[in-house]
Structures are given as structure tokens and as C-alpha cells.
Amino acid sequence: MPELAEVEVVRRNLSRWWRGRSADRVCILDEKLVESGESDALQAALKEPLKKAGRRGKYLFCHMACGQVLVFHFRMTGKIVCGDKPDPKYGRLSWHVDGAGWLVFKDQRRLGHLCLLSEETLDDYRPLKEMGPEPEDISVDYLRGVCSDRRLLKTALLDQSIVAGVGNIAVSELYWRLRFAPEIKCGQLDEEDWRRLVEEMPLYFEEIIEKSMSDEILYIEEGGTPNDFQVYARFDELCSRCGGTVDKRKVGGRTTYYCPECQRKGA
DNA sequence: TAGTCTGTTAGACA
DNA sequence: CTGTCTAACAGACT
């Protein structure tokens, strides 16, 4: 899914819709979502009141009153919405919450995951154990220390064990803000660059979370979605800062959008 | 039509 | 260590 920002929006929405409330019905719409034999336990957990919705990186954790924890990962196209139907298009799991309606885990590409853990085993969950700090908890010394000089900065930032939650869109947007060229290597950043990067990451997420707050996360790929980004998905459009023409290229296997005129650092 | 994308990530491999 | 390819998957685009 979604990167950190979109998961955070879902977390806030779930807090609003679901916290303190229990569900009376559960529909597993896609069997592939559930490990075999876990179906009953999952349904039981979903009917518990939600105690707290938490997030780490791109993972969402629903702590239920019984001590079970539902862990969602949305990969490319997952989201959770609130509606009045138990089985909308691309729905994989839905549960009916008193006073809120049908909450639905939708996931067009079906790459998302859901697993059921307990409070006690949560710390052993591998993605959590291997995850780096949140962007707001990163220090310059830490980041510089774990980024080797010859590695692409982009690859390092997308590595969830270095920083949690950074995705492909965030890289394009951060590079634009910092005027970094797409292929900049870690070794090409000076002291000031590292400082700006560490400062800008949490700011970027904060701003995009605010802009994205709504009852349903819309992805750019979905028609009619406004593009809130400066360069991402703006190929051939004009750079809002310098008027240059936005270009795109593959870096580390994923497309980076950038302005060749004003993003020169490391070019 | 076939190939190539897509806001992810784990694992195999060179 | 690092980068690259693949596989999960579905649909849109060229």
C-alpha cells in the first residue's frame, strides 16, 4: 500500500470508527487472506472491541480487547474503508461494527496480508524486529552510520530496516525538496545534506498525512484522484519551483520522478 | 497481442 | 555488502 502516510490515515480512521466498539458479523470474502485453520480465531478476534489502533512503518496493528493483535499490511493496493455494504468490489474481509457500519479491507491486487498475533508474541514478529526507527526518531549520526557510501541513497531509504515507512513516492518527493538528483549515492551527501534529509523526512510525512486525511485513501492510479505531489506522477509537467520539465527514470528498480533543472546534487 | 507498468517485500542469486 | 531478478496478484496502458 500505501506508505507510512496512508497507513497512518487508515489508523486514525479506524480509531474513530471502531475503538471501543465490537462487531456482530464478520465476512471472510477471500479465503486466501487467512492462514488455513485460523479462520475461527480471526472471526472471534474481529468481534472483540478494538482497544487501540497502532502503526509501525507501513504496518497497522489492531489491539483487541481480548489481547489478540490483528496485523495488516496493505502492500500495493490495500485499504480499509467504512461503508454500508459487506461486499464491495475488491473486498477481502469485512466486519460490521455497531454504530459505524461495515468496515472493509479492500485490496484489488490481493497482495496484502493479515495475520493474527497476541500481545505476547508481537515482539517476535519478524518484520517488527527488523524494522528501523520511524522517520521522526532518526538522528543524523544514526542514518549516516547505517548508509554505506557507495549505496544508492534511494535503496537505503526504501530499506525498511534503515528507516520505517519510506516508500517510492516519498523518495521522489523528498529528493525534490532537497534538490537531490535521482541517482545520488550516500557518499555524496555532506554534513548539511544529511541534516536536511533527517529534518525533512518527518516534515514531509506530517504534511502528506494532513493532506491525505479522508475516509478513504485514494491512490493516484485510481481515476479522478487529485495529485498532491510536486513531482510524483507528473512526467512532462512543469516543475512548480523552476519551470523545468519533470522527467522520470528507473533507480534501484523503481521509477523516480524528478526535475532535471533544479535537482542537481549528486548528478 | 504481448510486453510493461503499478504507492511492497521476501527470497534467490551473481 | 549490493544490486538485480522473481514471485505473490490484478488490471490498465502502450
Largest sheet: 4 strands, antiparallel
The termini sit apart by 30 Å
Structural class: alpha+beta
The fraction of residues assigned to DSSP E strands is 15-25%
Do you know the CATH architecture of the largest domain? Alpha-Beta Barrel
Helix content: 25-40%
Whole-number tally of structural domains: 2
Q: What is CATH's topology name of the largest domain?
A: N-terminal domain of MutM-like DNA repair proteins
Total strand count, please?
Answer: 10
The chain-level mean pLDDT equals 95
The CATH superfamily of the largest domain appears as MutM-like, N-terminal
Strand order of the largest sheet: 1-6-7-5
- Number of separate helices: 7
CATH class annotation of the largest domain: Alpha Beta
Low-confidence stretches: none
Shape: globular
Order of helices and strands: HEHEEEEEEEHHHHHEE
* Radius of gyration based on Cα positions: 20 Å
Structural features, described:
With about 270 residues, this protein is α+β, with helices and mostly antiparallel strands. It folds into two domains: about 5-130, N-terminal domain of MutM-like DNA repair proteins (Alpha-Beta Barrel), CATH 3.20.190.10; about 140-260, Helicase, Ruva Protein, domain 3 (Orthogonal Bundle), CATH 1.10.8.50. The chain has helices at about 5-20, 40-45, 125-130, 140-145, 155-160, 170-180, 190-210, and strands at about 25-30, 50-55, 60-65, 70-75, 80-85, 90-95, 100-105, 115-120, 245-250, 255-260. It has a four-stranded antiparallel β-sheet, covered by helices on one side. Strands 2-3-4-8 form a four-stranded antiparallel β-sheet, covered by helices on one side. The protein has a two-stranded antiparallel sheet with strand order 9-10. A hairpin with a 3-residue loop joins β3 and β4. It is globular, with a radius of gyration of 20 Å. The two termini are about 30 Å apart. It binds a DNA duplex (14 and 14 nucleotides) through α6.
